[in-house]
């Protein structure tokens, strides 16, 4: 920061501030700082890159105050330097002239950015270890951010409301993975209300897809389809990954209703969209080709195409990313179900044993439910001994 200030380039100062290690392992997003400075993300990018040189004194003063830069470190005079500043609850001037910032709360862009960074870490933990241990932690985080919004300045509330919407959507997913669908639906509804208040079209569309997913798990395919179509009608451009996620939801709805042709067309569209690179700020960047393959396998089993489900899964699973362990368990369970439906009970039980280890580690109730579906599939296929063996294993492990 000192080197940036010595350069007398406000763009260098803004960039150094965003990337400062005090903000954690990830820089403050340009969008967060741009909102605090009352500029667009594009304008901030041009200022940081030196394409727009800021020489207007009023703007320099405004930017310095947003960042909280002490006056004595600036290369220009603030407009309130006519005399010694009276001490306030937020600034303490020491005898040597230095100023100590004593504000109880970090600058608002830093706070919102830090909360989103924490949320990203929760998402990674969920993929690796499952939702079980995260539910109480994230619930407490939701209460904390709600309190922050209630006690923050008006300029900070919009940013914190967006954070609350993101956390509410994530809580909906955690409850969905735990098979508590009533709580999942309740948190999804909260997320929709908060997202609507932010007027962020992409965010609102994304949480609509969460509502659709919950409705699908609850067996309400018509509602799932309608919610997905509403999400796709968002008055904003949606990313390819976002559209891939929506097409997967359409495929699930069509599969539940037995419309195999519509299901396959939606899966084809999902695969095409998922093949595009994810944008840095894309909420649906997790909808990779591997994740689309999982959804496709689930749908293909539903429409009685287990051979195709095997063809989709088997090339993907050996290359599965180790950090996405919970979904690996689900993928193995789907593969086992497809094997059982094609008359391979020995392989099905073998694969299910590996899936069961992951399900026990991650406490993913969705995966456990799929394992019990596998047991029923074995019974339907006439592999009663295999079904009995799996039942004993399930009861002892889960």
Account of the 3D structure:
The protein has 398 residues and is an all-alpha fold. The chain folds into four domains: 2-79, Orthogonal Bundle (434 Repressor (Amino-terminal Domain)); 107-199, no CATH class; 215-298, no CATH class; 324-398, no CATH class. Helix content is 68%, strand content 2%. The protein contains 19 helices and two strands. The chain has helices spanning 2-6, 10-18, 30-37, 41-48, 57-67, 108-129, 134-151, 154-177, 181-198, 201-217, 221-232, 240-256, 260-274, 289-302, 306-313, 325-341, 345-362, 365-380, 384-397, and strands at 91-93, 99-101. A two-stranded antiparallel sheet has the order 1-2. A hairpin with a 5-residue loop joins strand 1 (91-93) and strand 2 (99-101). Helix 9 (181-198) runs antiparallel to helix 10. The longest helix is centred in the middle third of the chain and has 24 residues, at 154-177. It is elongated, with a radius of gyration of 26 Å. Mean pLDDT is 89; it is low at 81-88.
């Amino acid at each position: 920061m000192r080197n940036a200030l010595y350069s007398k380039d406000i763009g260098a100062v803004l960039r150094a501030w965003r990337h400062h290690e005090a903000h954690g392992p990830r820089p403050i997003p340009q969008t967060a700082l741009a909102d605090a400075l009352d500029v667009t993300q594009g304008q901030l990018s041009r200022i940081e890159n030196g394409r727009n040189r800021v020489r207007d004194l009023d703007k320099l003063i405004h930017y310095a105050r947003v960042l909280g830069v002490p006056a004595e470190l600036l290369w220009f005079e603030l407009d309130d330097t006519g005399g010694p500043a009276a001490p306030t609850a937020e600034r303490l001037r020491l005898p040597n002239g230095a100023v100590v910032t004593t504000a109880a709360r970090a600058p608002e862009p830093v706070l919102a950015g830090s909360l989103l960074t924490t949320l990203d870490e929760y998402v990674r933990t969920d993929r690796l270890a499952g939702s079980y241990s995260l539910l109480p932690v994230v619930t407490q985080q939701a209460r904390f951010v709600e309190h922050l919004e209630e006690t923050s300045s008006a300029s900070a509330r919009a940013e914190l409301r967006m954070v609350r919407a993101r956390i509410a959507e994530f809580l909906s997913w955690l409850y969905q993975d735990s098979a508590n669908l009533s709580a999942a639906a309740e948190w999804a509804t909260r997320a929709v209300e908060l997202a609507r208040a932010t007027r962020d079209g992409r965010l609102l569309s994304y949480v609509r897809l969460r509502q659709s997913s919950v409705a699908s798990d609850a067996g309400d395919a018509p509602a799932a389809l309608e919610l997905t179509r509403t999400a796709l009608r968002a008055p904003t451009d949606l990313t390819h990954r976002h559209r891939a996620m929506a097409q997967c939801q359409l495929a699930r709805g069509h599969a539940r209703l037995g419309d195999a042709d519509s299901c396959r067309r939606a899966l084809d569209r999902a695969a095409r969209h998922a093949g595009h690179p994810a944008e840095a700020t894309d909420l649906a960047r997790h909808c990779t080709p591997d994740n689309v393959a999982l959804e496709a396998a689930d749908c293909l089993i539903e429409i009685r195409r287990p051979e195709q489900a095997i063809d989709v899964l088997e090339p993907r699973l050996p290359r599965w990313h180790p950090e996405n362990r919970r979904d690996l368990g689900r993928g193995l369970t789907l593969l086992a179900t497809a094997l059982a439906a094609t008359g391979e009970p020995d392989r099905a039980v073998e694969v299910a044993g590996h899936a069961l280890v992951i399900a026990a580690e991650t406490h993913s109730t969705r995966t456990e439910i799929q394992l019990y579906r596998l047991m029923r599939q074995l019974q339907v296929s006439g592999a009663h001994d295999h079904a009995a063996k799996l039942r004993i294993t399930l009861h002892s492990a889960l």
